[in-house]
Design a protein that fits this description.
The structure holds two protein chains of two kinds. By secondary structure, chain A is mainly alpha-helical. Chain A has a single domain, classed as Formate dehydrogenase/DMSO reductase domain (Formate dehydrogenase/DMSO reductase fold), CATH 1.20.1630.10. Chain A contains ten helices and two strands, in the order βααααααααααβ. The chains are: A mainly alpha, B alpha+beta.
Chain lengths: 340, 411
């Protein structure tokens, strides 16, 4: 194929945007995971503390991921100071506009949930130390003063989870709005792909933090990991559908698919498929077999092994999520101005 | 329609808008009326020139019979410009005069509107608020001289590596070429300015409304608010947007110190180094600032400048073969519409819009990427959307003109 196409999408949006999309997906997924854990803490009191830990990690990781991703996005801009004119962001035909306001809402909801779950009467974070006590004392006071009833808080958390889902999906729609120019950013399959990947990464991040801090016994880690496995399988199906769509598309779509599977094979086959999908499934399978055969409560050594195994699995899931977004950016080709 | 009613709008508009100007308003009104008579084939160009050449020279210091400054110097290998479409040249000249007269008294935006009407055809068409500036570009007459590329670069003083107007040279896979690919016979051209789309993707994705469509259909960027997020670059099917990393190249600022560079415009560049703001104060033309995303404006600065002719663009002015026709596509009397009639043919429905040409004359006209947008550039020539092409140097390269070659990716 020869055609005239002045620039590739990755010459406009490159590493910083890929990392931002990754952090956005991770933030939304972590919050959703935390919100689910928050509800499970009521339904299963025996694992209450473990679930609440995951709930707190979800809110914290949501805030932290966007606190990192926001500046990355900001400094990608040519004129970052123009963001100060926030009142101009009213073009709701643009997914960037929608995303900006979703991020603002998401940050508010995440911070509120982190405040209520981690400070004040619950003291979930249990931040120690006399040095910080004047500050944490103040935050505790704010938390207790503003804390609504549990029903209202959980209602807000459910709403926050919806916003989290929207945050994940927006990172795909931001790209797929240009699917007529960049076939890789397919409007049908990119949103479910990013949604699956975002939820998977969110579970990996929030539950992974719980795994590292509280281990795997009575924390719901195994259950979340199984849910993650199901999502990973769904993600594999969506990736297959995306590839099938590309190979049946126009010349640029076909060229994209070819590029992905040839020149881009290391990042795609290695980073996304092997490290991000197959390896986590394999580790998860091994750990499930271990848990099925042995009672980890009775064997601290095996429990440590399982903890390390789940942490490793979750680490690969997060790495794969990053590779997926970089692949989506770097393997993208423009439909040429003319020619085929 | 009576003769009187044909010209009532000119009288009314002139009374309103020429009341404060220092020039001879009666002359302006009379010229506008006669310009429309020429447009309606009621008066010959020669008679028009004969009637006004002395008055115009005396009043405005302009020779009605002379061509634009851009055509002053012949370029090797480029045909002389005397063969330009006669009626249109006359209308351009009239538009230029009207610009000065009207703008002096009534403000730049009014000037632009009036001038668009004078060039684009009837003033009534402008008043209808249904103006869509656009171009008809003839790929069959283009001689690949790249004067449009250079003229645009000089006039708009565009940043390093930016070419708001570009000319792609290529060979089609479905065509045999007997000549070398560095000759006119051995290559085909495609001129590519911004398409100023009806449903511009760049406007749709721009988060803070920095991209917008003007009343006369230009798609412009407000550099005061542009974020430089590059979303417009990603979304544009025509790849016309460019992120500004640095200012204009040295050869534009100091052409005398760059022996390889020979300007084709005399004194225009200096005029457009400043910011050009529209009537709402938006910085929409002139050299774009670092960090913004810029593109072709259809020379919007001309509309905003009291001294300039807003009815033309730099690329149109410098084209030696009239391959670029700029005007209101909605006005049947505009230059591009006239060009389509004269070179392609009449539409079955004379009231139909210009894009009907694509339907009725699919072998003679085409647009690009109409699947992704609704462009306002109509090409005359063989559609090349579905053929394989290979980029070739053509008879003139940017290096030949002293312009840096932009790194272009082929895939």
């Amino acid at each position: 194929m020869t055609a005239v196409s002045p620039l590739l999408p990755s010459q406009f949006w490159s590493l910083s945007i890929g990392v931002y999309l990754f952090l956005g997906g991770l933030a939304g997924g972590a919050y959703v995971t935390g919100a689910v854990a928050d509800f499970l803490s009521v339904r299963d009191p025996s694992r209450r503390e473990g679930y609440l830990a995951t709930a707190r990690w979800g809110t914290v990781l949501g805030v932290v991921a966007l606190a990192i991703g926001g500046p990355i996005l900001l400094f990608h801009l040519g004129e970052p100071l123009h963001v100060i004119m926030f009142w101009l962001f009213t073009n709701f035909d643009s997914w960037m506009t929608i995303g900006i306001w979703v991020i603002v809402l998401f940050m508010v909801l995440s911070i509120l949930q982190a405040l209520w779950l981690g400070f004040g009467a619950d003291r979930g974070f249990s931040i120690p130390g006399d040095v910080l006590s004047p500050v944490t004392g103040l935050i505790d006071t704010v938390a207790d003063t503003t804390r609504p009833s549990e029903g209202v808080r959980r209602g807000l958390n459910a709403f926050g989870a919806l916003v989290g889902v929207l945050l994940i999906v927006y990172t795909a729609l931001l790209l797929s709005a240009s699917s007529e120019v960049v076939p890789m950013w397919d409007a049908t399959w990119l949103p479910p792909l990013f949604l699956a990947s975002g939820l998977s990464m969110g579970i990996a991040a929030a539950v992974g933090a719980t795994t590292l801090t509280r281990g795997v016994n009575d924390t719901g880690v195994t259950m979340f990991s199984i849910a993650d496995d199901v999502i990973i399988v769904a993600e594999m199906v969506v990736i297959y559908m995306l590839l099938a769509t590309l190979v049946n598309g126009g010349p640029t779509a076909v060229e994209t698919q070819r590029y992905l599977l040839t020149e881009g094979n290391v990042i795609f086959w290695g980073g996304v498929v092997a490290a991000g999908l197959l390896l986590p499934l394999a580790i998860s399978g091994g750990l499930l077999a271990l848990e099925w055969r042995y009672d980890l409560h009775e064997n601290p050594r095996l429990e440590r092994l399982a903890t390390a195994g789940y942490a490793t699995k979750f680490g690969f899931v997060i790495f794969g999520g990053l590779m997926l977004r970089l692949t989506i950016i770097y393997a993208a080709l423009n439909v040429p101005l003319f020619g085929v | 329609m009576s003769d009187k009613s044909n010209y009532d709008d000119i009288e009314d508009r002139a009374e309103e808008r020429l009341s404060h100007v220092e020039f001879d308003t009666e002359l302006g009104k009379q010229m506008a009326r006669d310009a429309r008579r020429v447009s309606n084939d009621e008066l010959s160009r020669a008679a028009f020139e004969e009637k006004y050449v002395d008055d115009v020279r005396q009043e405005f210091g302009v020779d009605l019979r002379s061509d634009s400054q851009a055509d002053a110097e012949a370029t090797p290998g480029v045909p002389p410009t005397e063969s330009k479409a006669s009626r249109r040249d006359m209308l351009k000249a009239t538009g230029a005069l009207a610009t000065g007269a009207v703008a002096a008294g009534a403000g730049s935006s009014v000037a632009g509107e009036f001038v668009s009407g004078s060039t684009g055809g009837t003033a009534a068409a402008q008043e209808g608020g249904d103006v869509q500036m656009g171009m008809v570009i003839d790929t069959t007459t283009c001689i690949e001289c790249l004067r449009c590329v250079q003229g645009c670069k000089e006039e708009n003083n565009t940043p390093e590596g930016h070419f708001w107007q570009d000319v792609f040279r290529f060979q089609r896979e479905d065509k045999e070429y007997d000549a070398a690919p560095n000759t006119l016979e051995g290559s085909d051209p495609l001129q590519r300015p911004c398409m100023h789309c009806d449903d511009a993707p760049c406007i749709e994705v721009c988060p803070n409304n920095s991209r917008f469509k003007t009343e006369n259909g230009r798609v412009l960027c407000d550099y005061d608010t542009c974020l430089g997020c590059a979303y417009c670059e990603v979304a544009c099917p025509y790849h016309v947007n460019s992120f500004v990393h640095e200012g204009p190249p040295d050869y534009l600022a100091n052409p005398e110190e760059n022996e390889d560079y020979e300007p084709i415009l005399d004194d225009v560049t200096a005029e457009f180094e400043d910011q050009k703001r529209d009537e709402e104060g938006r910085w929409v033309a002139g050299t774009p600032p670092d960090g913004s995303c810029s593109k072709c404006t259809f020379c919007a600065h001309r509309e905003l400048d009291d001294e300039q002719d807003g009815s033309t663009t730099a690329c149109e002015d410098v084209c030696p073969v009239d391959a670029i026709q700029f005007g209101d596509l909605h006005d049947p009397e505009s230059a591009p519409r006239q060009y389509l009639r004269e070179t392609v043919g009449e539409l079955d429905d004379a009231e139909a819009g210009p894009k009907q040409y694509i339907e009725e004359y699919p072998d003679e006209t085409f647009t690009l990427r109409e699947d992704a947008s609704d462009p306002n550039i109509i090409y005359v020539g063989d559609d090349l959307s579905d053929v394989e092409v290979t980029a070739v140097p053509g008879p003139t390269t940017k290096d030949d003109r002293g312009l840096e070659e932009k790194d272009r990716t082929l895939h």
